[in-house]
């Protein structure tokens, strides 16, 4: 079998970001309002600092403003909640993201739930999770949205197909499953209405399940967990994993081997990762429009 088509997240994300930048420029002329994202970073985890910096840079390139709120690692849950209350009340801030992971002593769910639902551009607050489950999302969570966008850009529909998602996190696996079983998650019915199976660390016979996938999504955080014998010939393979190893960044999929079995595959890096940031920009812009009065928006 010929090698799989490589789903290029980098160029797809660049095209989406260029579209967003154009829309933001027109919006600013019309409304005089600059979409603004506030990122809250607690502690000094080096990877988190890089992620936040990348998000800030992406905002600037799209013509949006960004603000970084840096808090020391010893910040208490209560102090963080108070900071979020200030950002929630600040009319100049349209989107708020709390960079994860938070230090262990902080009650992460209560923090995520405190972000005003209209500013919750990661879509992690309970209200937005509930709306997604009900099939009427306010914002779509960035990484799952990026996955569906990539499938859409390459014309790989999921309707009626069996999608197997390995990983059930609140950030990737669960919200992606909810998007794919919905009747429409914003990109048309062809990119929803899937038959979805979610696997996790206690799933038995993982390989039997993954082999039945038309579209296989790995979101685990274990280098090369998905080997070629776990993939149905001709399947589409989406690798969400980002693992730092001695050989550099690798995904959850054994890329070199799976490439000769799959019909399409995402690389790591340069696959899903860049789409996540593009979707964050899209949500920040949407949040800004949502919070701007119709008169100002013109
Ligand atoms: P997580 O640790 O919260 O969840 C991992 C999931 O994998 C859990 O549901 C667990 O049950 C499951 N799992 C663990 N071992 C397993 C096994 N042997 N078999 C089957 N399932 C198993 O992780 P997460 O936050 O969802 O992130 C997953 C990966 O995706 C990480 O590598 C992370 O860095 C990456 N990620 C990438 C992006 C991106 O933008 N591309 C965004 C978020 C996360």
Structure description:
The structure is a single chain. The protein has 2 domains: 32-116, Leucine Dehydrogenase, chain A, domain 1 (Rossmann fold); 142-274, 3-Layer(aba) Sandwich (Rossmann fold), CATH 3.40.50.720. The protein has 11 helices and 11 strands. Helix 1 (9-31) runs parallel beside helix 10 (272-291) and helix 6 packs across helix 7 (173-181). By secondary structure, the chain is of the alpha/beta class. The chain is globular. The protein has a 6-stranded parallel sheet. Strands 3-2-4 form a 3-stranded parallel sheet, with helices on both faces. Nicotinamide-adenine-dinucleotide is lined by residues 143, 166-169, 171-173, 199-201, 203, 206, 219-222, 225, 240-243, 272-273, 276.
> In total, how many beta strands?
11
Work out the helicity level.
40-55%
Q: For the report, how would you describe the main beta sheet?
A: 6 strands, parallel
Q: Based on CA inertia axes, which overall geometry fits?
A: globular
- By secondary-structure content and strand pairing, the structural class works out as alpha/beta
**What is the count of structural domains?**
2
Strand order within the widest beta sheet: 1-11-8-7-5-6
Question: What is the CA-based Rg, rounded?
Answer: 19 Å
| Element string (H = helix, E = strand) | EHEHEHEHHHEHEHEEEEHEHH
